[in-house]
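Discrete fold record:
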Amino acid sequence: MNTEHTINPTPVTSNSEQLAVLKRHFPHCFDKQGQFVLSRFEEVLQAHEVTTTQESYKLDWLGKSYARLLANEPIRTLLSANVAHNSQAANLNSQNLLIKGDNLEVLKHLKGAYREAVKMIYIDPPYNTGSDGFVYQDDRKFTPEQLADLANVSLEEAKRILDFTQRGANSHSAWLTFMYPRLYVAKQLLRDDGVIFISADDNEIANLVRLCDEVFGEDNFVANFIWEKRTNRENRKVVSSRHDYVVCYAKRQTPGVRALKQLPMTAKALANYKNPDNDPRGLWKSDPATAQAGHGTKDQFYILTAPNGKKHELESGRCWLYTEKVMKKEIADGKIWFGKDGNGVPRVKTYLEAKERGLTPESILFAEDVGTNESAKNLLKELFSGKSVFDTPKPVGLIQTLIQLSCDEGIVLDFFAGSSTTAEAVFQLNAVDGKNRRFILVQIPEVPGSESEAYKAGYRTISEISLERIRLSGREISSRETIEAWNKDAGVRVLRLDTANMADVYYAPDALDKA
């Protein structure tokens, strides 16, 4: 039986929600007509000694007012299910979703069922290189007068905005106008402990960080990772670029709580732990017993006497890690290592089993650890039986690392799905550690070039490639002997954006998680 839902004639927007918060907590700041009285709110701020300022650094561009309008514009579509695909045994009960359509519309649909439910977002948006195909092309129809009124801008500015949104621009302003509403809505999907990772290159990295500062807040900046995307030199370039960036922001950083987890111990890291003195506490490695002098108290400056009577003096600018009293106790407990002959520089034993240990992530993601564009392309080609269907896929290892840093459980969202690297990364990790992460991917049905290998191989949209990779990688991983704890969900249900007059199975936004 078909179930249909009409578009809400009075939709809830981000602006109306924020207004509702103000009315709930500051009702006295509104007059009889429901107008917000700023002077009353300023009195509240003064009473609580909240410091305000008239000057601040901000990012501005042509189209910012329009981008805000798009972020709050109501949904214009419905979601319909691919019944034939979703009825297949591998997909019937899958908790994974692939949604075909404009990702801004889809994100607004997702708010109904997944508001503050997503643990991690990874996106690889267009880089705006001038050769990556990015152009801002808007199908929304406004007259200059309508836009001036809706966006609260002058008629002249409204005309300039409509000019670049309707002629297919690829300027910085066009890219920011494209990205702002998508990040704005995406933030509402993140859990309070959620994080977002965004790939970028030099073309827009500065603008991206400033944009994220505005959307997520400067205090929620976590890191700007440098990913070594290639290992070979491009001699035809003035400078051979070997890296891209992955910017990370938290939804809400909590003091004293790590926004990112540590990475699992690698075989290389574990090899550092040995037990040459048969310590009953197990494997250990040695770390320096000194620290920078500027952080020390006067009790951390002394001449240390080893068990064999040898005196150890501090180097200039250093202090001992412990006070003399504590150091003597640690030595007596056998937790200070002086080398096999007892004459070595004192070092502190760090035990492998003392607590759950991991590797603190570093700001550089090396190719040997996470892969390159080239290795990713080769693996994807192998999966597709020798067909090169996608030019610049991200390596599975890169996305796996980002997931390991942020998501032990819950939903991973990628609304620039491309070749579905994120889906394969989720499958791979779940199969290894038994976790039950699930993904939501969004991909517009972009048409590959007629001369591309993908088109020649029969793929008429990028979203077809997205789905096929999920199918192929899911089938391959399901055939392995994987950890028993994993629920072995290697399928995906498929939805697409439709206009309201299509006859099919439709889902209201708040019914998506039951789809």
